[in-house]
């Protein structure tokens, strides 16, 4: 066999590894795009929600699953809101918010007073609900064309590798 044919056969044999690497690269780039916009879109109080947004890739080879979102539990309530009549949020989770938004930092407030105000707020949230303030869905929607383009380019790069043309990569 000619050296050219041997080279093509060698590249064909490397296709699964090259495809897996290219898919992982496209997945990581996609997740980073969505993560960056979600951080920008996230409601700001302390910055904890935005700071908790991260991504990960599960799986190997050609079977990958990408995840991006906040690690703080209240992220889902910011994204989707709370319906009126739902269970009260934990009072302890609202104490810091009450302290930051209802009191002068130099003003001394008792723990009992803070708990009482946080309880009243939790009860009001339970009765009235809170509106959604989406940050993840807009990030996905905005970046979907770029994500699709990243994955569409995978096939072209793998094909270029097989034929040894421009854009070819080595495993």
- Please give the largest β-sheet: 2 strands, antiparallel
Strand content: 5-15%
User: Separation of termini?
Assistant: 24 Å
Helix and strand string, N-terminal first?
A: HHHEEHHHH
- Give the class from helix and strand content and strand pairing: mainly alpha
> What count of domains describes the coordinates?
2
Could you explain the architecture of this structure?
The chain has 171 residues and is mainly α. It has two domains: 1-42 and 55-66 and 138-171, no CATH class; 85-128, no CATH class. The chain has seven helices and two strands, in the order αααββαααα. Strands 1-2 form a two-stranded antiparallel ribbon. Strand 1 (53-60) and strand 2 (63-70) form a beta hairpin. Helix 2 (15-41) packs antiparallel against helix 7 (136-163) and helix 5 (91-102) crosses helix 6. The model has no long low-confidence stretch (mean pLDDT 89).
Summarize the structure.
The chain is mostly helical. Helices cover 62% and strands 9% of the residues.
Characteristics:
171 residues, 2 domains, rod-shaped, 9% strand, 7 helices, 2 strands, two-stranded antiparallel sheet, mainly alpha
How is the secondary structure organized here?
Blueprint: H1 3-13, H2 15-41, H3 48-51, E1 53-60, E2 63-70, H4 75-80, H5 91-102, H6 111-128, H7 136-163
Antiparallel strand pairs: 1-2
Helix pairs in contact: 2-7, 5-6
């Amino acid at each position: 066999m000619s050296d050219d044919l041997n080279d093509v056969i060698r590249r064909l044999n490397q296709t699964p590894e090259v495809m897996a690497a290219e898919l992982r690269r496209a997945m990581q780039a996609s997740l980073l795009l969505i993560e960056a916009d979600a951080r920008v879109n996230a409601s700001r109080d302390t910055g904890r929600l935005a700071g908790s947004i991260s991504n990960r890739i599960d799986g190997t080879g050609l079977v990958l699953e990408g995840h991006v979102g906040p690690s703080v539990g209240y992220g889902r309530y910011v994204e989707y809101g709370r319906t009126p009549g739902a269970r009260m949020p934990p009072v302890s989770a609202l104490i810091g918010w009450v302290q930051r938004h209802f009191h002068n930092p130099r003003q001394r407030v008792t723990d009992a007073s803070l708990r009482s105000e946080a309880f009243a707020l939790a009860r009001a949230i339970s009765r009235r609900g809170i509106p959604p303030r989406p940050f993840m869905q807009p990030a996905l929607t905005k970046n979907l064309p770029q994500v699709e383009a990243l994955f569409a380019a995978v096939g072209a790069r793998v094909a270029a590798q097989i034929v040894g043309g421009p854009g070819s990569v080595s495993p």
